[in-house]
Amino acid sequence: MLHGYGSDENDLFSFADELNQKFLVVSLKAPIKLGFGGNAWYDIEYSANAEKWTNVSQALQSREKILQSLDIIHKEQNTNPQETYLFGFSQGAILGYSLSINYPQHFKGVLALSGYVDPQLLPKTLEADKYPEYFVSHGKQDGVIPVAWARKTEKYLKENNFNFEYHEYNMEHGINPDCFSDFMNWLKKRDLL
Prior knowledge:
The chain is of the alpha/beta class. The protein has one domain (13-189): Rossmann fold. Helices cover 31% and strands 17% of the residues. It contains four helices and eight strands. Strands 5-6-7-8 form a four-stranded parallel beta sheet, with helices on both faces. It has a two-stranded antiparallel ribbon with strand order 1-2. It has a two-stranded antiparallel ribbon with strand order 3-4. Helix 3 links the parallel strand 7 and strand 8 (164-169).
């Protein structure tokens, strides 16, 4: 589990109780401590015209730290990389896309909630013959990450023949009951509950 900007490892961990007890659930804490509390995987900068942009160097460093953490977990807990699911929210979803598209052999599935595919964090060409499957959700009233960015992600996944489900909800930047129900059903179909 990869939390969003300004949160911590406890944010998504409440969903762990819903999962099948045979699974090891790990929620990672982002490495950058924010001045107002919480953590981030990378800084978000703003240009003079108030456009957001990613600190790509920090994002790539965090991505490598997550991969290293997964390697340690697989070795110490004797878990199978091909059975690993990533659950990311917002900034965690952005990194979830980056991890799974750059290193598809490490993941079976990705739940990407309220995030988007950042082209700066993707490989120049898609070379793998098999990518994980995705559950993608976004709020139509999201004021943090516009739904238009999620729609670009849907287009990217479709054009590149990824296996995915895309959902939009009448919500802001979060997880509402309909979204929760849909991603739980997605997990249930994969015998993860």
